[in-house]
Amino acid sequence: MDVDLMIRVFPYFAEAAWTTVQISVLALALGLVMAALGSAARLSRWAGLRFLGTAYVSLFRGTPCLIQLFVLYFGGPQIGINLDPFVAGVIGLGVNIGAYMTESIRGAILAVARGQVEAARSLGIGRRQTMAHVVLPQAARLMIRPLGVNAVALIKGSALVSAISLVELTYTAQRYIGSTYKPFEMFAIAALFYMVVIYGALRLIAWLDRRYAID
Length: 215
Description:
Blueprint: H1 3-42, H2 47-61, H3 65-73, H4 85-111, H5 114-122, H6 127-157, H7 169-180, H8 183-211
Helix pairs in contact: 1-2, 1-4, 1-8, 2-4, 3-4, 4-6, 5-6, 6-8, 7-8
Protein name: Nickel transporter
Domain ABC transmembrane type-1: 17-205
Organism: Tistrella bauzanensis
């Protein structure tokens, strides 16, 4: 193992790791927005909205994220959409993970005991107020773990954006392999940075789970 080489390239990988963190955080934020809209549509009383929510989940969970990134980045210019790799990566990853998070949020809302909803309605509390003050506070606590699992999957999946030339951890490793012919060292240091980022995410998820756990 060429330790000296790993030490020399370490700063470049640290910079690439920061890009990985940025794209993961922004994609997660977009994914949460998409998931909130998707779950609201899936639970709507109107059949048209339920159809749209189901179509969104089916389309983005039923096709590879890599293909979605290719369609957005390489196919976009054909219809007048020109995006730089970072923006395309955030949108592609965010919309994709939003489809998975839609089911996590929907499942957490449905897990709240139906009797509590009926009790609130029997007291004259409106549908929206019941959702805002009875269902969502409890569902939010149930969402932490499944959404955390999705967040970790998103960080791992961020390696896919290397295929659209975004200079993040995986792309940086591939680039240095081309000039050093040291794949073991380059992928090892990339894996180390991924582990650090994911460990930080897991610690944050565990803290949130303890902080807001339902007794």
